[in-house]
Write a structure and sequence with these properties.
four-stranded parallel sheet; binds D-glutamic acid; Rossmann fold; six-stranded parallel sheet; alpha/beta; 2 domains; about 270 residues
């Protein structure tokens, strides 16, 4: 049996956007082996029901634990974190740590005393879950909170529309919404949005603090691994990237989320 510390970190997302988180993890924790699972057969999660996303998340986590023997699970997807984190945390309590992308982001924002009014942009399912508003209100009730579903952004980025006139126009249209007026911080609550962070910041003339999940989640994972004595001292295997449905187009798109093209392996863990 492999030593606990030598086991891999399991990371999953609805698709390949979670590679922004995987990339931040591999940079901060170069000794850790990563097993990534992108559920490309079922994406997008952003407009699916909570119950369906929960069933996908449980199946993927079972695969990462039972077949890949991972020592920790990172839900590298805002929508899956919003819909399924509590279910996974309770189901695997005492088995492995489960890290979501929402709590570390909320912690980073509330720790910044200069922020008085925060906005969140995300998929429809993340916004409809009410999870950000509930967490901010509970943990820092004096913070003014506002949110907006921005469903076009994830597919726009996947189709490589960013840093161009089209993306500028879409971003301007969304961010001009009355709901986001007078914010001094904006949370990019979707794995895809780090790719448009600079454009968003430029829209606000760099006067609004922009938070994205990739780095804060990697830092949280590091903290959890150290606390649980699970951190690896040397890399025990190569990183593996699975998808539930392979297309060459997905593989090419990994470049924009991971910084370089990576090889994707198709793995069917569903019978459908
Ligand atoms: N990964 C999703 C998220 O972070 C965006 C893509 C999707 O809707 O599946 O919310």
């Amino acid at each position: 049996m492999a030593k606990e510390t030598n086991k891999a970190i399991g990371i999953f997302d609805s698709g390949i956007g979670g590679l922004t988180v995987a990339n931040a993890v591999s940079k901060l924790l170069p000794n850790e082996q990563l097993i990534y699972f992108g559920d490309t057969a079922h994406l997008p999660y952003g407009d699916k029901s909570k119950e369906l996303i929960q069933s996908y998340a449980v199946r993927i986590t079972n695969f990462l634990l039972q077949e890949q023997h991972c020592k920790a699970i990172v839900i590298a997807c805002n929508t899956a974190s919003a819909a399924a984190y509590e279910v996974l945390r309770d189901k695997y309590k005492g088995v492995v740590p489960v890290i979501n992308v929402i709590d570390p982001m909320v912690e980073a924002v509330i720790a910044d005393e200069s922020i008085k009014r925060v906005g969140v942009i995300a998929t429809k399912t993340t916004i409809a879950s009410g999870v950000y508003s509930e967490k901010f209100n509970r943990r820092k009730p004096e913070l003014q909170y506002t949110e907006l579903a921005t469903p076009l952004l994830a597919s726009m980025i996947e189709e490589k529309f960013y840093n161009n006139e089209i993306s500028h126009a879409v971003i301007e249209n969304y961010l001009s919404d009355e709901a986001l007026k007078d914010i001094d911080a904006l949370v990019l609550a979707c794995t895809h949005y780090p790719l448009i962070k600079q454009e968003i910041s430029a829209f606000y003339n760099h006067r609004v603090k922009i938070f994205d999940s990739a780095e804060v989640v990697a830092k949280k994972l590091k903290w959890v691994l150290e606390k649980e004595h699970l951190a690896a001292s040397a890399k025990s295997g190569t990183d593996v990237f699975y998808v539930s449905d392979f297309t060459r187009s997905f593989e090419k798109t990994t470049e924009i989320f991971y910084g370089k093209e990576i090889h994707l392996q198709q793995l069917r863990i569903w019978n459908d």
